[in-house]
Every structure is written in C-alpha cells, then in structure tokens.
Amino acid sequence: MTLSAEVTERVAPKKRRRDLARYLYIAPATLYVLMFAVVPMVRGVWLGFTDTKLTNPSGGRFIGLDNYTSLLGSEAFWNSIRTTILYTLVTVIGTLVLGTSAALALNRAFAGRALLRGLLTFPYAMPTIAAVLVFIWIYNPSSGLFNRVGRVLGIGEAGWLTDPEYGLASVLIATIWKVFPIVMLIVLAALQSVPEELREAARVDGADALSSFRGIVLPHIMPTLRIVALLMTIWSIRRFEIIYLLTGGGPVETTNTVVVSIYRRAFSDLDLSTAAALGVFGLLLSFIVTVAFFIIETRETRKEASS
Amino acid sequence: MNLKLHRGLAATATFCLIAGLAACADSGEDNQDTSDGKAAGTLVVANYQFLESGRGEALWNGLLQYESANSDAKLEQSASPYLQYVDKINTELGAGAGPDVFVIQEAQFATLAEAGLLATLNSAVEGSDITDLNSGLKIDGNQLGVIWEQVTYALIANKNVIEDAGITEMPTTVDELIAAALQVQERTDASGFAVRHLMSEFESWWMDYNVWPFGFDGAWSDGEELTIDSPENIAGLEAYKAVYDAGIMPLGDDASTYRTKFKENQLAFMIENNGATLSFTSGGAITGQDIESSPLPFEYPGQHQRIVLAVNANSDNKALALDFIKWFVSPEGQTAIRPGLGASTLATDVPLGADFEAANPWAQTFLDAAATSRSNLIPGFETETKPIMQVIMQAVERSITQGQDPAAALAEAQEQAPAAVG
C-alpha cells in the first residue's frame, strides 16, 4: 500500500463522520420545516382540489379545478385581490417612509433621544388587540378623538369604521402606526454602518442634508430597505388580526383582503377547500413578490460588483 | 459512537412505549363505570357563557350540582369568548377531538348534526319532561341535542334615562321609537337607541337583525326557494334603515360599548335578548328594577336564539356524558340551572323563582315572546344559514352605509345568495 492510499484510508472515515455530523446538525431544523411548513403547505394545496368541509376535514372528494374556476369567476374574489394589493402597497410605502424618516431623525444626538426611541417603539411592542381597541375608540363617530378634533376644527365628522369611503384608510392608519417602528429599528441599525467620515467630508464640501442623504446614506441603507420592503410586503399580504378586529372585512367589503376571505370561507362558511384555494392565491402573491425581489437583488449585486 | 446511537434509540423507544402505555392506562381510568353501574370520570363541559361576569359563575355553580348527584363524576370547564368558541368547537369536533359536552347555537347545531359529529341522546331524554320545543333538535328520529336555553327579544329601556326625558309610555311602533329616542337626546345627555350595525360583529349581528324582517312578517325562504327580496323583508330593512338614519344611534359603537352605556345610564332604548338583559343587572349602575321592557315595536313577533346542549359523538366519556344529560333534563338539573339562565325558556317547563321575578320585572315580556318567536335558521337551508346571512348582511350594510335602496340591495343579495351556498 502506498503512503497516499494509506492516508486516504485513514481520512475517509473521519470525513464521513464529519459529513454525518453536518446532516445531524441540520436534521432538526429540516424536520421542523418539513412538518410545520412543507407538509401543511402541500396539504393546503391538495385541499384546494377537493370539496372538504371544516366539520369533516378528512372526508373531501377530489373535484379538480372547480374551486379555482369558481373563485376566478367571482367578483368578490377579484375585489379581495385588489384590496390586498392596495392595502399592501400603501402599508409598505407608508411604513418605509415613516420608519426611515423616524430612524434618520433619531440617528442624530439630542437630549431625550433614548426616551423618544423607546416611545416610538411602543406601538410595535403593544399587543395587537390592545392597539385595535385603542383605534376603535379613536374612530368612534360620537366620542372618538378623530371626530372630536374634526368638530373643533370645523372640518366635520366621518364614520371611520362604518363608511365605505373611510374603511380602508382607517385600517391603513392603524396598521402603519402599529408596524412602522420595526422599520425604524432596522433602518436605525443600518444607519450605524454609514461611515461618519464620508458624511463629514460631504459636509465640508458643502453638501446639503438632502444631497448627503441621497449620495451617501441611501446607497448604504438601500440593501436593508430592500429586505425590509420584501418582509413588509409578505407580512402585509398575510396580515389578518388588525383588519378583522377593526372591520371584519367591512364596511361593504372595502377591507376584505384575501386573508380575511380565507378566514370567512373556512370558519364562517366551513368551506375548507375554497379557503385553501384562496390560500394558494395568497401564496402566489407572496411568491411573485419574492421572485421580483430576488431578481432586483441579483441585478443590484451584479451592478455593484461591476462598478 | 454507533453504540451510543443505538443505546439512545433504544432508550427513546422504551420511553415512547412507556409513555404510550401510561397514556392508555390514563384514558382508561378517565372513563369507567363504578361497581354500582354508574358512569364515572371527568367530563369536559364547554360553554362561552362561563366567561360572562356574574352569570358565568351562576351557570357553572348550577352545573356543579351534578357532582352531588353523581359522586363519581367530576366536571371540568372549558370556556373561550364566543367568536373563538364557534371556530374552536367546529375545528376540534371536525378533527375528532373536542369537549365531551358543549353548548352551540342552533345554526351550528344543524351543521354539526349534518356532519355526524353529535351523539344520540335518546336514552338520556327517555322518560324526561322535555317540551315540544326540543323536537326541533330531533333528526331522523334521533334526539341530537336538548335546549340549553332559548332566548327571545324585546324592547328594553333604562327607566332612569327615560324618566329624565319625560317618557312615560314604551314605544309600540318604529315611528314612536324614533320619536322617543329623539326626545331622550334632546332632554338628556344619553343616546336614544342602539342595536348592532357593524360587520366586525357579523357572528351576532345576523342573529339580532332578524327581528326587523320578522317584525314585518318576512322570511328568508318559503322552505324551498330563497325569498330574500320579498316585500316584507324590504319593509324590515326600510324600518332598520330609518332608525339608523334618524340620528338616534351611537354609530360605531359595538355591542359591548353600547351595552355598557345602558348599564351606566347613558343609553335609553335597546332591542335586546333576555340573556344580555340579565347581565345588565349586575356590575353596573342599574338593577333589574331599573329596566323596563315591552314587546318589539312591530306588528309580528320576532325571533329566538336557540342554544343547544349536545354531546360529542367522538367523546371517550359518552356514557358519563349521557348520564349528565339525563341529570340536566331532570327536575333537579333544570332547577339547578334556572338561576343562571334567568328569563330564558329551558328544556323543560321550569317556572321562574319568586325572588327572581320580584327582582327582575322585565323578565315576563321575554317569556311571553317565547310563545310566538321564530327560529333564526332559514327553512330548507338550515345548514347554509350563515353563508346566506353573510350575503344578506352585506346588502343591509350597503343600504345603511351607502344609501342603496333597500329593495335594490336585497334584490342583489337574492341574486348572489345561490352562489354563496354553492
């Protein structure tokens, strides 16, 4: 036996053990994802092709694409898709603008900064049900804050949660208030990576605040903003409790997002299969957003590498 | 390493085996008969009403008297707020699990009965004095539930508020109601009238709403076809819209908010069920003596909510559950539960206690209404009541919030309803 063969023979079992250990390390996580994400997802997709009822979840028959065709032909379905897209767009833009602005303001040193950071983080830390109760009071037509202010200022009153014209706007205000602090915290963390000397140099060169933000800060925090935008989009598509507790999908279906429809179908109509088919459309929405994000991210990375 | 792995696997397998055997032994212990043939063990009883302050405790204390009747039995409470309760029971029973005994609304009863998830109670009710009202819970000759309580609706008023407003007579028509409520708002700081009107309360709103079409002799079907846009139903929606538009309601208030206002002398009139009315007599600024009641301000009678007590078909404690039902429909059981259920109609004819009647003079109106009230279920479409009502309530919402003509809104619902039920 040659020396190299002897070495190979001794090294091989060690390598196998190392490989086995690697698989063992990732096994719990893989099992977890398989059991609690992949299997339910596959089952959910399958349910969409059956006529399963909530009261008999294992008794559904295969009915092909019936659930999908009936959904695609329903005005209510398209309304819920439109509402979801609008809700998501405004929530993402609103939270990004408000969160980034707050982060930029809080990144400067001033007296009481720590206190203000804590205060602005409060909405995110607050339980959703408590936040909803607060907003129900704020929106109350007779005794709520909004209408009281409106009366004092002479701009009139509105049925914030009862008038279809204001329903979605009311839910959006509550959502953005509740969620923007997480964007603020993430952007605040990203701002710490912006080199101070670059800002200093810009100031010395006479750059104003806006130019300094566009030329120095924004490029540094852009990758973070892109990831935050992706997460906010996916979370907004999936968001349920704040919408359902505030309006139940009303007034006149103006806040009936895909997720609220899924809940109604599954638990009010007990129609698990149509709810599952709706879930597949929700999944598709998230998937499209994720793919778009990765395409943009890859392009940006290539651009950065080439420059 | 391999040896260690093998030892680990062997230990895990042994543990699982022991745990499995222990679980089997445990479940066997939970459901056994005693030497005298009586069912024994722990029975899980589910009811959202256990969470209601004051009343919940009275209900549970009433049920606990079963433990005296059967000393080998122990009751365990399972409670969650109504909105989660409905979903929880449907999901658990669908999965072959859930509590042994539970209360459900009539609409949910119809669905669960159709799915075969309710146990037959024939042996438990045999020889009992249950009234004919329970025959509606018999399917194909099998008794699948008994009435826990049947609540009815009436017009109630806060005496303190209406006296301040100078009102001495209860309104008997919708116009009189609007006039009286306006008078309250002119002369006091209180709101005039309140009923549910928000889609976020759909689960309860649709049941409350039926007083309006029923009050005009309306019905959602003729037993075979849906009649959503009938002239009577349109008249009911017109009356509801007139009240909504009259400026007498605290719009945007959910039921818990306006009910609190009533308890605190800040609201004059409500159309309410007797269960909720009883809850106003404790924990607020008023007692039963401060509540005035009168029949609904319509020509025709209103509806009732029938709440049913049923047994899980997949219960491991079925013998004990049936023994519990047998006790529940007995004079002892009915007398024990009466204080917690106030002025509701029960499974048997149990009179109100003299003390209760004296403390709650409003109660008799509700008991009288029970003689003529109608079911919330849509005849011929019992198991599809909720999806149909979802479409109807969306039409009601369009009419009150967007000003859509009631006839046009209900005509639209008539067109949409068949698709909603598949």
Structure summary:
Chain A has 307 residues and is mostly helical. Chain A is 78% helix and 0% strand. Chain B has helices spanning 2-30, 55-63, 66-69, 82-94, 106-114, 122-125, 159-164, 174-187, 202-209, 211-215, 231-245, 255-263, 274-279, 318-328, 331-341, 354-359, 363-369, 385-402, 406-420, and strands at 31-33, 39-46, 73-78, 101-105, 138-139, 142-143, 146-158, 191-194, 267-273, 291-294, 303-311, 374-375.
Summarize the SSE layout with pairings:
The complex is a heterodimer of chains A (307) and B (422).
Chain A: H1 3-47, H2 66-72, H3 75-106, H4 113-125, H5 128-139, H6 145-153, H7 164-191, H8 196-204, H9 209-238, H10 241-247, H11 258-268, H12 272-306
Helix pairs in contact in A: 1-12, 3-7, 3-9, 4-7, 5-10, 7-9, 7-10, 8-9, 9-12, 11-12
Chain B: H1 2-30, E1 31-33, E2 39-46, H2 55-63, H3 66-69, E3 73-78, H4 82-94, E4 101-105, H5 106-114, H6 122-125, E5 138-139, E6 142-143, E7 146-158, H7 159-164, H8 174-187, E8 191-194, H9 202-209, H10 211-215, H11 231-245, H12 255-263, E9 267-273, H13 274-279, E10 291-294, E11 303-311, H14 318-328, H15 331-341, H16 354-359, H17 363-369, E12 374-375, H18 385-402, H19 406-420
Parallel strand pairs in B: 2-3, 2-4, 8-9, 11-12
Antiparallel strand pairs in B: 1-2, 4-11, 5-6, 7-9, 7-10, 7-11
Helix pairs in contact in B: 2-15, 18-19
